[in-house]
Amino acid sequence: MSANTFPAQIEPFKWAEQGFKWSGQLPLSRFVRIAREAVGSIDDQLINIDCKLSMDAYHRIVWLDGHVETKVPMECQRCLETVEIELVSDFHLALVDDESLIERLDEDADFIVLGESEATTKGSYDAPATADLLALIEDELLLLMPLSPKHDVCEHKHQPAQEEVVEEKRDNPFEVLAALKGKLN
């Protein structure tokens, strides 16, 4: 599939039965929340994606497995220059349409409950559960983005130069009190 045929909305259960797989590259600009954090031009930035859907033996839980990687230009919080932040994620997400299925998952398994918001907005509870594949992948990458991006080593050129601090000798307040006490006695 090409980048133009990447499916944004999927029906996980139907597509898992068909053995959905997708591998390719998408422009970083398609991931709006990540693009907002980027600095400079991201026109040439790409995200490499490999993903597939599979179903458990009971046909009630769909697994989204994937590997994504990209580099996002962000502003270094030390020197205010651009720093390339590498984002690499291997994920294994359970997609369920019923919260009662969550107890069947391992306690450390990541999961998404599908259908709650879609059913209320469509007005029909019989509508098939859909998922925004682009948003699911973007969520995985957002979890990796640092709150305060920094170079491993950089110059603090936007901070004032550190001047030598001349320490002045101060009297110990207890010594002063002891001297006063000695004068009174």
Automatic annotation (TrEMBL):
Entry similarity comment: Belongs to the DUF177 domain family.
Origin species: Acinetobacter schindleri NIPH 900
Any Pfam family: YceD
Lineage, opening ranks: Bacteria, Pseudomonadati, Pseudomonadota, Gammaproteobacteria, Moraxellales
Record's protein name: Large ribosomal RNA subunit accumulation protein YceD
Function according to Swiss-Prot or TrEMBL: Plays a role in synthesis, processing and/or stability of 23S rRNA.
Matches recorded under InterPro entries: YceD, YceD_bac
GO cellular component labels: cytosol
Superkingdom, taxonomy of origin: Bacteria
Family annotation (PANTHER family): LARGE RIBOSOMAL RNA SUBUNIT ACCUMULATION PROTEIN YCED
Keyword Membrane in record: no
GO BP, sorted A to Z: ribosome biogenesis
Keyword Transmembrane helix among record annotations: no
Keywords: Ribosome biogenesis
